[in-house]
Specification:
It comes from Paramecium octaurelia. With about 725 residues, the chain is an alpha+beta fold. The protein has 23 helices and 16 strands.
């Protein structure tokens, strides 16, 4: 903006200000009370009315067009579609309230004081004003939610806030008396009061909130720019989103800040200054608000996806229409695109980091206690990685030392290191990260004896198609995700910090136990890692590599999958989906006993399997762990018996043939065994009992000794009954 533009605006403002005279203190409450002026002066100035009449219809029809496109193409909803849709609706409602108020004042030449019209428009204006600002603020926070992988939870929280805020305002209106009246700028709203103190508090709070909003929005934009790298795979989406995002947020920040300033001037003038020419602040406030919602509508309407959608009706070729629609939806959900690209890059970085760490020399090993790693207490009262060794004193073999448990390998990963150490010709990009592998000698021991080729399983080129398809599948209640290697032999599973601490403290116990119990059905873990991005050193990704007990068999040959804990509460799936394809879902305890009754295996194996499962349960109980599951997969190997044989050579009890059906095998393992009994689990159990009004409820969460006993009696002894 040059000096001529500023002078022109000042001239316009001065001209408008001269239209106010001393006997036209339109919207000042104190003069009205002191001088017994007529209430009719609390109305819109004619200038305000004509501004609303000119601008509001444009906003309303623009908002209606955008809403129509959303309703016509429901895939536009999501992230950030939900926020944009709500902001558009609120802008349309507010423009209608502005237009109708202006017409009312011009026709009746009086303010809508304490009548039905004022109640309706005031209620609508206040509700949409608050909801719109909430959604703008959350929209500004989406980049941060993207960085911390919380887009879905942010969207859910936003919906809850919208409904809750609407319900709260309606409740206040129902219970309150004369809560809606004309405000200082001539618009009916809930916020109007007759108290000098409260009016000042409201105005200052308004200004403070939007100063905070502006500051946080700028920080979000800076954070987004810093943490989203300019990789070729995401450069276009990054640039497109930033252009649209910065335009919308920047415009909203400026307009909301001006609103706060004009509102404060208007308030101070009415209570303190009492200058007629300063009443121009009320008009400027109304003009700014009208321009704000109009500008937001125009920016939203200029979004590339909506422009493409609006041109579809002019396209004769239906195939072209469909193609354009797909492109537009992808463009509109560019934030989701970036989210997926970030996850793909994260997985690529994980695989590359695993390969590079595997190639580190053993002399590069250091002690992990020397690393700066946050040690969240898990309730055990000890930070020792050794844990309780009492149950291992009679172990036949103790091939590991505490020093080996506390060792780790550390390396740095970036695009240059990737090219140098992996010799990959293709363009593959990774985050700049610090990569840590815990207890490499321990995990290498199990990798060697189980004959696992991790380098091949996580080869970047062989996994390229898997990475391209990766969207971050949800890992159940924990929200962790799984990535399956290209041959489905191994799984990468992200971990919480508490799980990392739990496993580190018990790693010696687990390693020694599994060496001395080759028939153990505890699903093998072949490595535990921590990755720290250089741009996010305070935010880490923890993950482990573990065996996939299906052994890479095609999904079409997995007949049924059961995840069982020994509990009966909420442990039935088919009651909700009785006609579903069993191969496409994970069934639970009650489903198993209704369909399978038990494991149909040879009598010579019964006792060994039963005892192995009992031993594992006792071990986990002594480790104070709960919530583990027995995973049973029923797989048809009839067409691939030859392929199965190479897997059976290295298996002890994990793969057992069924005596009931030819070619059918049970794949069995105990999984998810890194959950400690803690305060949260105790509260979960009590909450479920309160909700169901059943003090005897057998919930999944129980103390370790109760959980272990139930696991043995109600699950192991039922599915593998001793004869």
């Amino acid at each position: 903006m040059n000096i001529n533009s500023i002078l022109f605006l000042l001239l316009i403002t001065h001209t408008i200000a001269k239209m106010y005279t001393e006997d036209q203190l339109y919207n000042c409450k104190i003069p009205l009370q002191k001088q017994q002026h007529n209430d009719q002066k609390l109305k819109l100035h004619p200038i305000d009315c004509w501004i609303f009449i000119l601008l509001s219809p444009v906003t309303f029809f623009g908002s209606s067009r955008i809403i129509y496109q959303f309703l016509k193409n429901t895939k536009l909803f999501g992230i950030p579609g939900d926020s944009v849709f709500v902001i558009t609706i609120t802008n349309g409602i507010e423009s209608a309230a502005q237009f109708s108020t202006a017409i009312y004042v011009l026709v009746t030449n009086e303010a809508p004081m304490q009548n039905a019209f004022c109640e309706i428009t005031g209620l609508a204006t206040s509700i949409v004003f608050m909801i719109s600002n909430l959604n703008i603020f959350v929209y500004a926070a989406y980049p941060l939610a993207l960085i911390y992988n919380a887009l879905e939870s942010t969207a859910r929280i936003l919906r809850i806030f919208n409904y809750s805020l609407l319900a709260l305002i309606l409740l206040i209106v129902i219970l309150g008396e004369k809560i809606v009246s004309t405000t200082l700028n001539g618009i009916c709203a809930i916020s109007a009061t007759d108290s000098v103190t409260w009016d000042l508090i409201i105005s200052l709070s308004y200004l403070f909130v939007f100063l905070l909003f502006a500051t946080m929005s700028v920080l979000y934009a800076i954070t987004f720019k810093k943490l989203i790298p300019k990789f070729s795979t995401m450069r276009q989406a990054r640039g497109q989103y930033l252009r649209y995002y910065q335009m919308f947020i920047g415009f909203s920040i400026i307009m909301k800040l001006l609103l706060g300033i004009f509102s404060a001037i208007n308030l101070l003038n009415c209570y303190i200054f009492l200058q007629a020419w300063l009443q121009v602040s009320g008009t400027l406030q109304n003009i700014t608000q009208a321009l704000c919602i109009l500008g937001q509508t125009i920016i939203i309407f200029k979004d590339p996806s909506l422009n493409l959608l609006s041109s579809h009706s002019q396209t004769a070729d239906n195939n072209i229409v469909n193609d354009n629609q797909e492109i537009s939806l992808q463009q509109f959900n560019v934030l989701e695109q970036l989210h997926k690209e970030m996850k793909k890059t994260q997985v690529t970085s994980m695989l590359a980091g695993v390969q590079i760490l595997r190639r580190q020399k053993q002399e590069d090993v250091i002690q992990y206690r020397d690393l700066v790693i946050t040690e969240d207490q898990d309730g055990s009262g000890s930070n020792s990685s050794q844990g309780d060794l009492s149950e291992l004193m009679e172990a036949i073999s103790q091939p590991f030392t505490i020093e080996e448990i506390e060792e780790c390998l550390v390396t740095n990963l970036n695009n240059q290191v990737l090219k140098e150490k992996l010799n990959i010709d293709q363009e593959i990009e990774v985050f700049s990260m610090r990569c840590i592998l815990y207890a490499p000698k321990i995990f290498n021991y199990f990798i060697t004896i189980d004959n696992i080729d991790i380098d091949d399983c996580f080869d970047l080129i062989k996994n390229s198609s898997k990475i391209d398809q990766f969207t971050g599948p949800d890992g159940g209640k924990s929200g962790e995700f799984f990535f399956f290697s290209y041959n489905n032999q191994l799984i990468i599973k992200t971990m919480r910090q508490s799980e990392v601490n739990t496993y580190k403290k018990r790693l010696y116990n687990f390693a020694t136990y599994q060496v001395n119990n080759p028939l153990s059905l505890l699903n093998k873990i072949y490595g535990m890692y921590t990755f720290e991005r250089e741009e996010q050193s305070n935010s880490r990704v923890h993950f482990l590599i573990m065996k996939n007990i299906s052994l890479g068999i095609p999904r079409s040959q997995i007949l049924r999958t059961y995840d069982m804990k020994g509990s009966e509460y909420d442990r039935e799936v088919l009651i909700k989906k009785p006609s579903s394809d069993l191969s496409q879902m994970t069934l639970k305890d009650i489903d198993f006993f209704k369909i399978e009754q038990q494991l149909w295996i040879d009598e010579s194996i019964y006792k060994k399997l039963n005892q192995s499962l009992i031993n594992d349960s006792i071990f986990l109980e002594k480790q104070k762990l709960i919530d583990y599951s027995l995973l049973v997969m029923i797989i048809d190997w009839d067409q691939k018996e030859n392929e199965l044989q190479k897997h059976l050579d290295g298996q002890k009890m994990n793969i057992i043939p069924s005596i009931k059906e030819k070619g059918i095998y049970y794949h069995i393992a105990i999984i998810d065994y890194l959950q400690q009994w803690n305060v949260n689990k105790s509260l979960e159990r009590k909450t479920k009992k309160i909700i169901t009004m059943n003090i005897q409820l057998d919930t999944s969460a129980q103390e370790p000794d109760i959980y272990g006993k139930r696991f043995q009696e109600k699950l192991i002894n039922r599915i593998v009954p001793l004869k």
